[in-house]
Amino acid sequence: MAFFMRRPFALTSALRQVPKSTTTARFIHNSPFKPAQTKPQPSSILAKSRQTFQNAFKRTYMQPAYSAQQGGNLTQRLAYGAAIIGGTILATNMIFNRETREDGGMAPYERSYLNDTFMHTGLGVGIIGIAARALHMNGWSFRLMAASPWAVLGLGLVGSIGTMFGTFYTPPENYVMKYGMWTAFNVTQAALLAPMMFFHPAILARAGLYTVGLMGSIAFVGATAKQEKYMYLGAPLLAGVTIVALSGLAPMVLPATAARTLMWSERIWLYGGLAVFGGFTLYDVQKILHHARLSERGIVRRDVVNESISLELDFINIFTRMVQILAMRSNNRR
Question: Which pLDDT score is estimated for 30?
Fold first, then answer.
C-alpha cells in the first residue's frame, strides 16, 4: 500500500506539463510573458491541444543557450557540486548519525547485499534515462502531453503498479521473468517522465547531481547508524506522503481562481516531498539492511531487485522536484 501511495508523484510531475489548463502553466512560468498573436481556434479537441502545446513550447522551452559568463566554466560548476555533496554528507552525518553501530560495523553479507541493491538501483535509473531520451526523440513526449491527463493518470498507475507488483511476486529464481518485469517497470517510468526532456540539459544535469548527493549522504547515514534505528519512520512517512500526494493532485481539482491555495499546495508538493522522500531513503536503506540480516539467517529470500525498486522510486521523486525547483529559479533570474 505504501508503494501505491508513493507512485503518483513522479506521474504528477509529468502531468503538470500538460498544457490543457491555465493551472499547469503556473508550474512552468513564474514570470509574466507576452501572449503570442491569436490564431483561429482548431475545431477538434486533439488539434486544439496540439496548438496549445505548441504555443507553450515556443514560449517556455525555446530559450537561448546559457552563455559562459552566465553559467561559469565547467571547473567552477564541478567544484560547486562537489562542495554541495561533501557538505551535505558531513552535515547529515553530524546531525543524524551521532550514535553509530556498536557491533563492529557492517557485516560482509550486509555490505554485499547493500552494494548489489545500489548497483541495481543505478542500472534501473540508467534504463529510465536512456528509455526516456529515446521516447522523447521519437515524439512520445508530445503525444503524452496532448492526451487527457486523467487517461495518462489511469494508464500510468495501471502500468506502474502492475509491473511493480509483477516484479515483487516473481521469485528471484526465475531470472528471465524477474528481470523482464523489472525492465518493464523501468520503461513505464521512462514513458511517464519523458516530457522532462524538454527542460534544458544543464538543469537536468544539476538536478541529477544534487539528487545523487542528497541520496548518497542519507544512505551513508542509514548504513552506518545503529541497527533499525530509523525503522520507526514508516508510519510517519506514510502519513506525510499522503499529504504530499493530495497536494500534488490539487491543481487537477481546484479552480484556477484559488491562487493562494494552489501556491501552498505547490510548495508542499515540492519542499515537503523532498523531506518525505529523503526520509524514505533513510528508511529504505535500513529496511534493506534488515532484510539482509533476515536473508543471511534463511528467513527470507535474497532479492536485491525488489529492494532496488524502493530506492528507484525515491530517486525519481526527489529528481523531479529538483528539476522543477531549478527551473523555477532559472525563470526567476531572467
Answer: 42
